[in-house]
């Protein structure tokens, strides 16, 4: 009884909605210029806003769930006045006078660059020495060595410097210059880095220098995001244009999806800019994603319009009939696609949430444009001549023949088709268990890029490139300046040195040991701190001497390995923690670990939510849980297939590829809806279920394939991205879209042609018509 009432309510709402859309479409066909001028004005208005669109590259601003932890990390690091520099590796034989003179000249020129606050080379290092009962900090040289004797003295002093192991490579073939830039990653900071690179290219040439560090990583992300948007956006537009030309060979067939795409992208990006939301490494794929997604509805509408014209309908009648037959599928597919992307709003990753919001906005806008502006546009353009000709006993198009034969083969070999599908799914399930998460931005770049080469050359010569700080809080002022606390720091250094991916570990304990190699006592600690002053220990000891920091550098590796190492590090260090003291891991490696946890948790929630919502929408559309479940099968197969391929090929879930499953949910169900709805329409005309399925394969199947080719073409453009992760995302999406469309054209017909289920399927699909006629058909 309750089910019957719910079906009645749903049917009533559906009829009211269709009537409203019918009136809106009638208005757009009767007054096309009013509709087109309205959407044109909207597009122009938001187009002017896109110029203020900004870019965000700070990885600390990625996660909401880990925001409190990141704040704790920042506060812990702030006690030690650590300012992350831009690291410059200069390659040259450090045993020669010429190399040091070149280093001195370059450093001097870099200091002249506007907004370079400091440039520190090994020539600016100091070393500590005992003079009586005091410790003095002396410069390694008062001027650039000008002869071999001065070079010898300088190298000897440098060898006594605590900083020498961080600034000169053990093989003596490179040095590190630390550059401190004002303005961060704003326009001032980026302009400074551009000028720095010009100087380095002129003075050291290709392969003579490398830039690295978190600052350079952020700069490179910013530059790459902008380059990708500028390059890939027009390419994707061109691809959609080309695919529609080849598919429809009609002015209307080309303009309808192309104008839909342009308006959707411009309005969505303009809306983002109006709200002050930036593009990030994650949402940078939004323009190309919208190009691929927003063309779907207009392609299905034009394909049906072309079919109606081929039957001899007049243009206006063909437009009305097309919209009437497709309004429900278009709305429902848009809602299910929006649900797929909408699931991203539950992500703990801020840019992922924002991508979800604006993807939903773009998809709904594209739906409205397709239902209102496309009919208006078609009413002004000439009807496709090729399709009119096809009504006069012209040979059936090759694609239609192919689809017919394909559908017959699927119906005949349905058991084999289903068994193969199940076998492939089981193999992919095994692959899913191997899926890994990746949030280390430096691994998002291609091999051979400036970021990749900088990290490789730095780590080959100096060890790890990402600073990890272990902040140890004694809980009381002056608490770290004791022998017992210092010895505890020493034991912790030994623990860190035992990890393969950690290197260059240091603390105040090792600083003291570089002056007093013997047994440590309280007098030495007090003497050194007073001798070198607060500036000499600011990286290791807080101002009130209540906290101490241990510095270590972690090698660029996978997020999983970083996360596992940090868990083990924290566990082992706590064994040597003094009584009453607390320990906090800070720095980019810790942020990466937090983001990995956010990725894994948010992905599971997003997938589950979107799948449930989509299933409910489809079940409501067809007024049948059974049909809704059948429609979900190609979608579920696609999700399992895409995640399984990632696990089997070693492609990780990261800032871009994490979107694959959500997009699969949103798009994969669309093909099922269009196919089943066409089967339902053919059943109304009195066709058998088998014949209706075959007819759907030739009609809806054609539109599905054209839509799939458009999506594949659009997403394939991302394979040319400068980001390795975005490139992998583009390749994955081409396979996913191909799998999704083929699955809909294989799995659903195989099930519909099943003799055991045919009666139940017929009853479920014809229930709405029966209710309208007053007949009673059981669930």
TrEMBL record:
Keyword terms, alphabetized: Cell membrane, Membrane, Transmembrane, Transmembrane helix
Pfam families linked: MMPL (PF03176)
Membrane topology classification: Multi-pass membrane protein
GO CC, one annotated term: plasma membrane
Record-annotated SSD domain positions: 255-380, 627-754
Compartment(s): Cell membrane
MF annotations from Gene Ontology: transmembrane transporter activity
Origin: domain of life: Bacteria
Residue stretches spanning the membrane: 24-46, 229-248, 255-275, 281-302, 323-350, 356-381, 416-437, 604-623, 630-649, 655-676, 704-723, 729-752
Protein name (record): SSD domain-containing protein
């Amino acid at each position: 009884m309750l089910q019957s009432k719910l079906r009645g309510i749903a049917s009533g709402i559906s009829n009211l909605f269709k009537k409203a859309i019918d009136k809106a479409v009638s208005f757009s066909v009767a007054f096309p210029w009013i509709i087109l001028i309205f959407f044109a004005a909207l597009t122009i208005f938001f187009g002017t806003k896109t110029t203020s669109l900004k870019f965000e590259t700070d990885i600390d601003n990625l996660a909401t769930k880990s925001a409190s932890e990141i704040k704790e990390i920042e506060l812990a690091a702030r006690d030690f006045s650590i300012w992350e520099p831009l690291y410059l590796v200069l390659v040259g034989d450090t045993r020669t006078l010429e190399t040091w003179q070149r280093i001195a000249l370059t450093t001097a020129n870099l200091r002249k660059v506007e907004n370079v606050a400091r440039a520190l080379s090994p020539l600016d290092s100091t070393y500590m020495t005992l003079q009586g009962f005091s410790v003095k900090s002396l410069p390694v040289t008062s001027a650039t060595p000008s002869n071999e004797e001065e070079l010898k003295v300088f190298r000897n002093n440098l060898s006594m410097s605590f900083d020498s192991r961080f600034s000169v490579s053990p093989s003596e073939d490179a040095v590190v210059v630390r550059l401190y830039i004002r303005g961060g990653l704003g326009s001032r900071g980026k302009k400074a880095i551009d000028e720095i690179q010009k100087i380095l290219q002129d003075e050291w040439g290709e392969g003579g220098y490398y830039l690295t560090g978190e600052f350079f990583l952020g700069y490179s992300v910013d530059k790459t995001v902008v380059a990708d948007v500028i390059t890939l956006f027009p390419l994707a537009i061109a691809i959609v244009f080309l695919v529609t030309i080849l598919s429809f060979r009609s002015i209307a067939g080309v303009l309808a999806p192309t104008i839909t795409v342009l308006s959707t992208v411009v309005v969505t990006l303009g809306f983002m800019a109006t709200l002050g939301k930036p593009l990030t490494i994650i949402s940078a794929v939004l323009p190309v994603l919208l190009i691929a997604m927003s063309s779907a509805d207009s392609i299905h509408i034009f394909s049906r319009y072309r079919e109606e014209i081929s039957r001899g309908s007049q243009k206006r009648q063909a437009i009305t009939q097309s919209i009437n037959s497709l309004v429900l599928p278009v709305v429902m597919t848009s809602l299910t696609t929006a649900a797929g992307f909408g699931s991203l709003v539950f992500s703990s990753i801020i840019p992922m949430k924002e991508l979800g919001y604006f993807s939903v906005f773009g998809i709904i806008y594209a739906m409205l444009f397709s239902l209102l502006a496309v009919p208006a546009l078609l009413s002004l353009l000439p009807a496709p001549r090729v399709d009119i000709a096809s009504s006069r006993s012209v040979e059936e198009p090759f694609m239609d023949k192919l689809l017919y034969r394909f559908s017959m083969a699927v119906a005949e070999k349905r058991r084999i088709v289903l068994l193969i599908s199940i076998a492939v799914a089981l193999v992919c399930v095994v692959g899913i268990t191997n899926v890994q998460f990746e949030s280390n931005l430096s691994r998002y770049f291609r091999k051979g890029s400036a970021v990749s080469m900088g990290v490789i050359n730095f780590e080959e010569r100096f060890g790890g490139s990402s600073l990890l700080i272990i902040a140890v809080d004694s809980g009381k002022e002056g608490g770290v300046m004791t022998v017992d606390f210092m010895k505890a720091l020493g034991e912790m250094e030994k623990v860190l040195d035992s990890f393969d991916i950690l290197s260059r570990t240091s603390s105040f304990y090792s600083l003291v040991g570089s002056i007093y190699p013997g047994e440590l006592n309280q007098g030495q600690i007090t003497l050194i701190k007073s001798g070198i002053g607060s500036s000499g220990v600011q990286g290791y000891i807080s101002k009130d001497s209540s906290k101490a920091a241990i510095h270590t550098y972690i090698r660029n590796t996978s997020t999983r390995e970083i996360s596992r190492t940090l868990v083990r590090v924290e566990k082992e260090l706590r064994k040597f923690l003094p009584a009453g003291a607390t320990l906090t891991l800070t720095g980019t490696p810790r942020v990466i670990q937090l983001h990995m946890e956010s990725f894994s948790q948010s992905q599971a929630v997003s997938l589950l939510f979107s799948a449930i919502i989509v299933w409910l929408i489809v079940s409501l559309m067809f007024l049948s849980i059974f049909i809704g479940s059948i429609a979900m099968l190609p979608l579920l197969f696609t999700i399992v297939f895409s995640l399984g391929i990632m696990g089997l090929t070693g492609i990780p879930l990261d800032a871009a590829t994490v979107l694959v499953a959500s997009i699969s949910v949103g798009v994969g169900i669309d093909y099922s809806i269009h196919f089943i709805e066409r089967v339902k329409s053919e059943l109304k005309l009195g066709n058998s279920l088998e014949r209706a399925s075959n007819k759907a394969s030739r009609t809806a199947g054609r539109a599905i394939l054209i839509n799939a080719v458009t999506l594949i073409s659009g997403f394939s453009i991302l394979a040319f991205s400068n980001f390795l992760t975005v490139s992998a995302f583009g390749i994955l999406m081409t396979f996913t879209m191909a799998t999704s469309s083929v699955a809909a054209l294989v799995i659903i017909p195989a099930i519909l042609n099943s003799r055991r289920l045919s009666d139940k399927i017929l009853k479920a699909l014809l229930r709405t018509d029966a209710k309208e006629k007053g007949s009673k058909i059981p669930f």
